[in-house]
Amino acid sequence: MSEVSRDTAVPLYIQIAGDIKSKIEHGELLANTRIPTEVELSGVYQVSRITVRKALEILVEEGILVRRQRIGTFVSDKKISRNLNSYMGFSQSCELEGNKPGTRFLSAELVKAKAFDIENLKLEEEDKVIRIRRLRYCNDIPVVLEETHFPKKYAYLLAEDLNRSLHEILHEHGVIARNCSKIIGVCYATREEAEYLKIKEHDALILSKDTSYDMAGEPIYCGRDVINADRYQYKIMINNVGKD
Predict the structure, then answer these.
(1) How many CB atoms lie within 10 A of CB 94?
(2) Which of 107, 111, 114 is nearest to 132 (CA)?
(3) In this structure, are residues 209 and 222 in contact, taking their beta carbons and an 8 Å threshold?
(4) Taking the model in full, what pTM does it have?
(5) Residue 144 sits in the same domain as residue 107
């Protein structure tokens, strides 16, 4: 049985949080498995439910545990980390952390350019774009619902296997993405997005609006990704920062 010490200045809830974290780190509690209920844990540690709840709140705030409404509290799956200081696609960021990327092609069609396309792809109002929609997976779990818009000169993409990496396909056609501008925000899942990402409607998502540029600085594509924040995180290194 797990034990806590009452002969120390360390609060009981801190000890319990540390014990649960240790069990996760040593593989006693595996990712995506439900942990015992507050009632069960209060019996295990011989403490009140309030004490257990405080311990669990710490681990939820740290992203080690995740609460799923009406189901229970689960050990979080490790998030994919994407470093914004370097340019890489979804597949590469997965593989760098030893994960298996995957893609489910949804649709590809020619549609009228919207204001975002016109501004970022340097188009005219009457122009059309190639819209490609895909669902991206990490270890067979849906993580990103991706919509990418290309100018019509990239129409050769419609004849390609779009379950593959778009960057690899572009590279085969002599197009190399050099830089990317990114705007990151928050949105809330529509019914369709929730169904694809296996979450609840209105759950918070990361919203990423990207524009990619070639070696000459010309735009290749712009896009809108909605991302399951429980499974994905961005990292950025900021240098030479001091406090005022």
Answers:
(1) 21
(2) 107
(3) yes
(4) 0.67
(5) yes
